[in-house]
Amino acid sequence: MTLLEQWRALLVPSGTFQTQDLWQLLVVIVLFAISSKTLGAKANAVAITRSSPTVWLKRNLCFLALWGAIVIALGICVFLKTDAPIFRFFSYLGGVWIVIGLLTSFIRAHFWAKSIAAVCYFFTGMFSLSLVDDSIHTLQDFHFTIGTHTLSAWGILSGILAFAFTLWIFLAMAKVIETQITRVPRLSPSLKVLIAKMIRIVFIAVATAIALSSMGVNLSALTVFGGAIGLGVGFGLQKVVSNFISGILLLVDNSIKPGDVIEIDGTYGWINNMRARYASVITRDGTEHLIPNEDLITQRVINWTFTNNLVRMKIPIGVSYNSDPHQCIQLVIAAAESIERVLADPTPVCHVLGFGDSSIDLELRFWISDPTSGVTNVKSQVLLNIWDTFKANNIEIPYPQRDLHIRSSEVTMPSTAEGDRPQS
After folding, report:
1. Band of residue 415 on the pLDDT scale cut at 50, 70, 90
2. In principle, which of 88, 222, 350, 410 could form an S-S bond with 329, CB 3.0–4.6 Å?
3. Which domains, from first to last, does the chain contain?
4. What's the pLDDT tens digit per position in 360-399?
5. SS3 355
6. Is 122 helix (H, G, I), strand (E, B) or coil?
7. Which helix (H) or strand (E) holds 312?
8. Model pTM greater than 0.70?
């Protein structure tokens, strides 16, 4: 007996599945649902930096529990002398998949370990299914008709598998292409994001077309359906389409890109990433605002880093009339220059703007090159330094004052006669 025949005898000794064996498939589905509900969240919570057998075991607790339950069910059926071909099939195939997973987990790069394991899972599963006599013919005989198209269970299954396999290949290619695009220095960050998104959209569309072809669907018949979808999108999803088109325009004209510091409608922060529908803006307090792309097109947006990262800050200052404005200007400039984030070139300047009601009005102007680190905090540092400097040099920062002059009235107030006074 050859190795292939031995493997087929282990999978299904009788050579085929029977209708009365479907209860076993139902049990497998129930066990899968239970294991996913109980262990799925815990397994997905495991962080992956490098692939290893230990990490693989932690990440696949759900699959290991399912396989163990199937093996126990097979043992019970063998003890009761009941034929269980589906339990046997999944128990042996699951054991092979565990071996594949453990072997590929020795590959340190998680992406390649997961990709190679997925290919091996796919081919061993399809190969094992093809060894079962009449299994493919049975799936092909189970078909139904939609309009003029006839779809079989095997066609749907092969289409899903073809979609998953081609999508995996295309996404792997897209990831490699995106890595190369990020290394091109002449492309702006927004253009890199746009190219990466377009590549992914094209690859997903091609994978979908391949899957539909595998199911036996004539793609030319989808022309009318695609036109109907386009009409529905135009009328029913106007905002979604508007945000999508606005996102493409933002990426093309490079007016707003990831990393820019913007201010819109009272929200100040830097752009974390740009999606098809919205842009993610993180403020200084850690709050992440999802701003629709349409608002970034139609509303007034302040881009603090559009041309460069240089930002000029203005701080109004008032000093007493008893102070020397020339000395105050020198002290204010020195106080600003002592702050690390204040640039020495362009140098800080201070001007007299006018003579107010209570003070001599000065204005300090200085530049910073890191608005992503915040602007209010650097203002606070400069103001505190000016306060300390003024205190050390006995310079008064005045508060509003008013002189009140009381004039005696020339109008004689009539006296009240004793008899006219009201009785208490």
Report:
1. low
2. 350
3. 1-133 (no CATH), 253-303 (2.30.30.60), 311-392 (3.30.70.100)
4. 999 999 998 887 777 888 899 999 999 999 999 988 888 7
5. strand
6. helix
7. strand 311-319
8. no
